[in-house]
Amino acid sequence: MPNTLKVSRSNVICGLGTWTHTTLQTQPYFVKAICSENPPSSVSITISQSGSASVSVTSPAPTTAQGAITLSKQFNCVAGDILTVTLSSAAPIDNQLNTVETTVVVFAGPGQ
């Protein structure tokens, strides 16, 4: 099953990996990812757009006091652009089941 993000819904992701959404219309899209780690670790979130423009943002490394990291970005997309959310980590503990949980929301349209 492909790792596809649905629009206007909370996409709950357990673990690390890459998820995508292919835009259907020319309009702004807003992507927000909230990652909670247990225990805090070295998780990194990257949100990128490929297609009409290549744009990428990456979260800063979390501090030991953080229980969650949040990253959000608005993209001006044309139909067919691919929005990608990648969760990665250099820490082996983050590859274990149920260590990293992320909620990703993709909104289409202006004013998000």
Describe the structure.
By secondary structure, the protein is mostly beta strands. It has one domain. 0% of the residues lie in helices and 54% in strands. The protein has no helices and eight strands. The strands form two sheets. The protein has a four-stranded antiparallel β-sheet with strand order 1-8-3-6, with no helix packed on it. The chain is elongated. The termini are far apart. The mean pLDDT is 85.
Question: Mind sketching the topology for me?
Answer:
Blueprint: E1 10-14, E2 17-22, E3 27-37, E4 43-50, E5 55-58, E6 68-77, E7 82-89, E8 100-108
Antiparallel strand pairs: 1-8, 2-7, 3-6, 3-8, 4-5, 4-7
Uncertain segments are none
Strand order of the largest sheet: 1-8-3-6
CA(first)-CA(last) distance: 29 Å
**What kind of sheet is the major sheet?**
4 strands, antiparallel
Strand segment count: 8
Our estimate of the beta-strand percent is over 45%
Number of helices: 0
Put the structure in a nutshell.
The chain has strands at residues 10-14, 17-22, 27-37, 43-50, 55-58, 68-77, 82-89, 100-108.
Main attributes of the structure:
112 residues, mainly beta, four-stranded antiparallel β-sheet, 8 strands, 0% helix, elongated
